[in-house]
TrEMBL record:
The keyword Transferase applies. Residues 80-138 form the Integrase zinc-binding domain. Residues 349-408 form the Tf2-1-like SH3-like domain. The keyword Glycoprotein does not apply. One of its GO terms (molecular function) is DNA-directed DNA polymerase activity. Transmembrane segments: none annotated. InterPro entries: Integrase_H2C2, Retrovirus_Pol_polyprotein, RNaseH-like_sf, RNaseH_sf, SH3_Tf2-1. GO terms for biological process: DNA integration; DNA recombination; proteolysis. SUPFAM superfamilies: Ribonuclease H-like. It holds the Pfam family Integrase_H2C2. Keywords: Aspartyl protease, DNA integration, DNA recombination, DNA-binding, DNA-directed DNA polymerase, Hydrolase, Magnesium, Metal-binding, Nucleotidyltransferase, Protease, RNA-directed DNA polymerase, Transferase. This is Gypsy retrotransposon integrase-like protein 1. It comes from Cirrhinus mrigala (Mrigala). Residues 414-438 are annotated as: Disordered.
């Protein structure tokens, strides 16, 4: 290339920089010295929303003088001393930009910048004890508590399943139905004492002697008022009868709903004449030993059976029903337990969160409401799968709950050596139309 340029004559002249507007990068003067920058703040303090660097970083540097990083600390991570680890987890987990992530996501966010030997274990414990996560996040585990069916009665009428159908249209001043083998229309929802009086009056009218009625009502009654989502599964008779009765009543008076009380007797007769899947027999057959006719009988009138024959047939019928009930109980129990897990064991004094699924919270949107409230202290276990909680005095609801509605909680801050928990901000519960706070 040097030989090529020898054929040209060059003349080098000076050109002022003011005229050399379109100079290229090669004509720029090279500066080898580094430009020094002063530490003077250019942006006014009034325009600064927050520091770019966390205050925690300054504290970590100060604490490292007494708690230096161990040799195994990665060079691209900041070692967090023991006294500041909980604060670092709180800043990362509770930040609005992270939104209370789970264990894996929280540990990943922390490990991007920080390190200490027990980071994973401490993160698991911190997230498990986070109050916001416990009350706002749903549980994805199988429901706790295996199905424990009620014991099978040893004879007819030893146990009675009752239920109420309420808020029906007024029919001859009746608005409710009391179902207890019979269908009894009521003008209002009765109290517990009025329910016992109704049972005594109906069984006396139905032909049961006074000894049977008094033995039924004066027995040692064990009433369970615990909140249990398995109530329908454990004792499906009452719910099944109510559902069947609703279907029958609807078929009788779907057009004119104000005369449903006129068809109560027919609905009761039809319900007791239909065979039940659990026994394979009708209620009439289980109790009376024979099936009353459903249609007018045109044949020869049958003679009443002898007393001994009737007793023998009744005993055989009940034995067959008992066998069918045992098979049905095993079938339902095995099917239900496939989707459940064994009950966790809680001890008195332990703290638990209570599911808000069955609580009426005064909040505008149910989907955005907390999934759990509390925590509450366990007072005692009510065998086999229920627990009594220490609810506030203004919670006018039963304090007994099924184990599937509970999940363990850590001891609230400041109550390790106290008898009562500190106030936890939970939504109000509607009790008798009034707000009840913890």
């Amino acid at each position: 290339w040097a030989l090529f340029f020898t054929q040209f004559e060059f003349k080098v002249t000076y050109r002022p920089g003011s005229k050399n507007i379109k100079a290229d990068a090669l004509s720029h003067q090279f500066e080898s010295s580094q430009t020094s920058y002063s530490g003077e703040q250019i942006i006014p303090s009034t325009l600064i929303l927050g520091p770019v660097q966390w205050d925690i970083m300054t504290e970590i540097t100060e604490y490292q003088n007494t708690d230096p990083p161990p040799p195994e600390c990665p060079p691209d991570r900041t070692y967090v001393p023991q006294a500041l680890r909980n604060r670092v987890m709180q800043l990362v987990h509770n930040s609005p930009s992270t939104g209370h992530p789970g264990i894996t996501a929280t540990a990943h966010l922390i490990s991007n910048r920080f390190w200490w030997p027990t980071l994973q274990r401490d993160t698991i414990e911190f997230v498990h004890n986070c109050s916001t996560c416990n009350i706002t996040k749903s549980s994805h585990q199988r429901p706790a508590g295996l199905l424990l069916p009620l014991p099978i009665p040893q004879r007819p009428w030893s146990h009675i399943a009752i239920d109420f159908v309420t808020d029906l249209p007024s029919s001859r001043n009746f608005t409710n139905i009391f179902t207890a083998c019979r269908l009894i229309p009521l003008t209002k929802l009765p109290t517990a004492f009025e329910t016992a009086e109704i049972l005594m009056e109906q069984y006396r009218i139905g032909g049961h002697n006074s000894h049977h009625v008094s033995g039924l009502l004066s027995a040692n009654i064990s009433v369970s008022i615990s909140v249990s989502p398995q109530a329908t599964t454990q004792n499906p008779t009452a719910r099944s009868n109510t559902s069947t009765m609703n279907s029958l009543a609807s078929s009788y008076c779907h057009a004119n709903q104000s005369d449903w009380s006129r068809y109560i007797l027919w609905a009761e007769y039809a319900q007791n004449s239909l065979s039940k899947p659990a026994t394979g027999l009708t209620p009439f057959q289980c109790v009376l030993g024979f099936q009353p006719p459903l249609f007018p009988w045109t044949g020869e009138p049958s003679q009443l059976p002898a007393v001994n024959d009737w007793l023998q047939r009744s005993e055989e019928t009940w034995n067959a029903a008992h066998v069918h009930l045992q098979q049905a109980v095993r079938r339902v129990r095995d099917q239900a337990n496939r989707l459940r897990r064994p009950s966790p064991t809680y001890t008195p004094g332990q703290w638990v969160w209570l599911s808000s699924r069955d609580l009426r919270l005064r909040l505008p949107c149910r989907k955005l409401s907390p999934r759990y409230v509390g925590p509450f202290k366990i007072l005692r276990q009510i065998p086999p799968v229920s627990y009594s909680l220490a609810l506030p005095a203004n919670y006018l609801i039963s304090p007994t709950f099924h184990v599937s509605l509970l999940k363990p909680a850590g001891v609230p801050r400041g109550v390790e050596d106290q008898d009562e928990a500190e106030d936890v901000s939970t939504p109000p519960v509607i009790v008798d139309g009034e707000e009840a706070y913890q």
